[in-house]
Hints:
Elements: E1 15-16, E2 18-22, E3 30-34, E4 37-41, E5 46-51, H1 56-64, E6 66-71, H2 77-83, H3 93-96, E7 101-102, E8 111-112, E9 117-128, E10 133-144, E11 149-150, E12 153-154, H4 156-159, E13 162-165, E14 170-173
Antiparallel strand pairs: 1-13, 2-3, 2-6, 4-5, 5-10, 6-9, 7-8, 9-10, 11-12, 13-14
Amino acid sequence: MRKQLLETVPFLVPAPVLLLSTVGREAAPDVTTISWAGVACGTPPMVSLAIRPERHAYRLIRETGEFVLNVPSAALLRAVDFCGSVSGAGVDKWARARLTPVPGVKVQAPLIGECPLNLECVVRNSLVLGSHVLFLAEVVAVHADDEMVQDGTVVAGRVAPLAYDPFGGDYWSLKEVVGH
């Protein structure tokens, strides 16, 4: 099979689509769309999040050391796209995207009520990589809509999470099981 040598980029596709909610000590809560995130550790449960320092959410995370990763369903596509294209520094994205902030139990950053799955996170470490800073955060609380849970665990197909092709700009819905 022939291969083409391509531009060197972090070409892992699709990437998860997440709504990142943050809050500052004196700043209003913010929500932004991210896709450079993933599982970092099982015990303790940790996630990784890479974000550019010029992003408003970056400043809020640096200030408080916490955030919430919210997993949106395909039904939230318009809100997801909007929150990823406008800075929260001067816009109330919560109101414009019609999202509901819900108080967390472990962190000050709000959950997004419309998202079927929410992970409250506390930053344990960070690493400057270049264009992005990598945050390693412990998941300190997990919330899931009742209809997403079966036998104490989340059923991914019920969440119908989104995935994103950061190089083509397309969103994908992940719902169907194709093997086990």
